[in-house]
Amino acid sequence: MNFDEAIHRIKERISKPLPGKNAQLKMSPQPVDERRFDLITPKSHRKGAVLLMIYPEGNQAFFPLIKRPNYPGVHGGQIALPGGKMDPTDADLIYTALREAEEEVAINPQKVTVLGSLTDLYIPASNFLVKPVIAFSEEIPDFVPEAREVQQILPTPLLSLFDKGILMRKKLIVNQGLELDTPYFEIQKEMVWGATAMILSEFLEILQSQ
Predict the structure, then answer these.
(1) Distance (Å, whole) CA 6 – CA 167
(2) Do 63 and 54 touch, CB atoms closer than 8 A?
(3) Mind listing the pLDDT tens digit for each residue in 183-205?
(4) Which residue among 119, 164, 178, 209 is least enclosed by CB atoms within 10 Å?
(5) Which UniProt keywords apply (predicted)?
(6) Rounded CA separation 135/30 (Å)
(7) How do residues 100-153 score in pLDDT, each as one tens digit?
């Protein structure tokens, strides 16, 4: 999918009702943790945002994923979108997404145009309610990973999401020995699962819709 077509599709679709839970569920580990979809999240939850930013390279549309360093915690070593928690001084969650992307991979917010956002997703493991912000840049960013938070940047062709060959499943053992039947995208030999895969699933459905 070329860059111009991708931006056109997103602009046409992002203002309409979103696929939401039905699209997210396609990539949700089983058994489903229904807390993800409760209308009321815990009062103690934290707010955060991630940035899914499209940019052109050779007339094709790309977006960056990141690999977190291996560290103690629920998300160590995982593949994610740039982003993080909302600071008290952030004007809103769009600002959070742009600020975090600048801090983590040096995306210049002055060169980013925000198109909208996908459905908020609650992550029980870290108690975050995450807003996925969709945006684009007309330039290839000069990515620089922040060493403490980003082990590797993975420039990802948008067209790769349409390849059914990257859809995989495996059994994962997580907290307290719980076994999950886990769907995931295999992207650049990395396992993209959990909340990131669920966000990408909704994004893919938007791109595929007419």
Answers:
(1) 21
(2) yes
(3) 999 999 999 999 999 999 999 99
(4) 164
(5) Hydrolase, Magnesium, Manganese, Metal-binding
(6) 30
(7) 999 999 999 999 999 999 999 998 888 899 999 999 999 999 999 999 999 999
**Three-state SS sequence of 29-75:** CECCCHHHHCCCCCCCCEEEEEEEEEEEECCEEEEEEEECCCCCCCC
Q: Which amino acid is at 80?
A: A
Return the structure tokens found at 132: 């996925």
Q: Measured between alpha carbons, how far is 177 from 141 in angstroms, rounded to an integer? A: 41
Question: For 146-164, what is each residue's pLDDT tens digit?
Answer: 999 999 999 999 999 999 9
Structural domains in the chain plus CATH codes = 3-161+194-208 (3.90.79.10)
Amino acid type, 170: K
